[in-house]
Amino acid sequence: MKKYFNYFIYISLLFLIIALYRADYLVIPVIFNYTALILSFILLVLGFLANSLQYKIILKRFGIQIAYQHALIGIGMTVFGKYIPGKIWMILGKAAYISSISNAPVNKISLVSFDNQFITLWVGLIMGFVGITFIGGLHLWGWITFGFWIFLSFIIFSPVFRIFIKKSVRLFLKKEIDLPSMSFSEIISMIPIISLTWIIWSFGLYFLIWALSGENTSIWNTLAFPMSVSLGILAIISPGGLGIREGIMTAYLKIGGLDTSTAVTITIMARLWFLVGEFFIFFIALYMKNVYAKK
């Protein structure tokens, strides 16, 4: 399992390089406020730390006990898996690592990880819908966001989806699997920690906009982040949401009052900003993984 996990890391990095080369995002902008820029990166890192705590908590809800550092390693070491076409590889990569350091089967952890991803996107779409409503863009992106939210609500709360997965596994893999599920109250209780992650990253975007434009922006504009990321991830055809995520964020910021040039610059830099955070958490996870491997 460990060997295949390492292969996953190498492949995900390769696809990241290919995606960046094709996207041609490597442009250095003018920085108007370096203090705001530093604050944006601090909040970016704090968001990843909160995301790791979120992952640890949801695993615990399903009876999978791991230390916080292992949740962080699982998040950090697989963070580039989303750039592999198909969108499931990051989740399977996390499951492979957590399975290697716990007694839980990889299929159970994979399903828990899918639940974590679905609920995270579900909350992100709620926040995006609220934001787009307040800036007056409900007629453009609001109903698309709402439609995806309804779709995720069905997946999260309806037993039909789990029955479908269970029957599919039985049909194609000829085996029975246990599909644990969270109750409505348990899912609702996860909203605060998931919202915390989104809020921290959104405030990071707030300071990034300040740094790149030299001006404060509406707090509602920061919700362009959870909305664009969530819709980008749901776009299966695009590795890591590249292109789609940027298009949504640019449109959102224009509706929020930014001129086209500023909105495009911020959108492109927001991708690079987040990528720097991904590299940071990846190397922290890599360091921690090597430290714990020696113990």
Estimate percent helicity: over 70%
What's the Cα radius of gyration?
19 Å
How big a fraction of the residues is strand?
A: under 5%
Low-confidence stretches: 237-241
Structural write-up:
76% of the residues lie in helices and 0% in strands. The radius of gyration is 19 Å and the shape is globular. It has helices spanning 2-23, 34-61, 68-77, 89-101, 106-134, 138-157, 159-173, 184-213, 224-234, 244-255, 260-293. The longest helix has 34 residues, at 260-293. Residues 237-241 have low confidence and may be disordered. α2 (34-61) crosses α3 (68-77), α2 (34-61) crosses α11 and α5 packs antiparallel against α6 (138-157). It has 295 residues and is mainly alpha-helical.
Offer a concise description of the structure:
With about 300 residues, the protein is an all-alpha fold. The chain contains 11 helices and no strands. It is globular.
Keywords for this entry:
mainly alpha, globular, single chain, 295 residues, 76% helix
What's the layout of helices and strands?
Elements: H1 2-23, H2 34-61, H3 68-77, H4 89-101, H5 106-134, H6 138-157, H7 159-173, H8 184-213, H9 224-234, H10 244-255, H11 260-293
Helix pairs in contact: 1-4, 2-3, 2-5, 2-8, 2-11, 3-4, 3-11, 4-5, 5-6, 5-8, 5-9, 6-7, 8-11, 9-10, 10-11
